[in-house]
Amino acid sequence: VLTKGGHPFGAPIERETRILENKRTLQGLENMPEAAELIISMLNPEPALRPTAEDVLLHPLFWNASKRLLFLKDASDRLEIEKPNEPIVLAIEARAQLI
Question: What is the largest CA-CA distance in the chain?
Fold first, then answer.
């Protein structure tokens, strides 16, 4: 649905090989990082590392606007009290350049 019918492992003729090689493409999800992250985790070749159905339903992709806003507020408040060299601050600032 998110990729308008695109399969993460390509066309039917190449699909089985690409699945075995774990060569996926998430074309169409470039502007939806939450969806891409979730789908990548769901396609993990190691079943034990895939999220459970409950984990999937709790993923930020399914948060409503109010929950997203509350999360951003809480994260902002947390960053204000952290020291600039704390791992959480450094991780967020490193990804800020990507946005």
Answer: 54
- For the stretch 27-63, pLDDT in tens is 888 888 889 999 999 999 999 999 999 999 999 999 9
As given in the structure block, the two tokens for residue 41 are: 């985790």
Q: How many other CB atoms sit within 10 Å of the CB of residue 8?
A: 19
Rounded distance, CA 1 to CA 3, Å? Answer: 6
Q: In 3-state terms, what secondary structure has residue 53?
A: helix
What is the CB neighbour count within 10 angstroms for residue 57?
10
User: What is this structure's pTM?
Assistant: 0.71
Consecutive H or E run containing 39 = helix 33-42
Question: What tokens appear for 34 in the block?
Answer: 């939450």
List the one residue out of 19, 15, 59, 63 whose CA is nearest residue 43: 19
Segment holding 76, helix H or strand E: helix 65-81
Q: Which of 66, 90, 69 is nearest to 79 (CA)?
A: 90
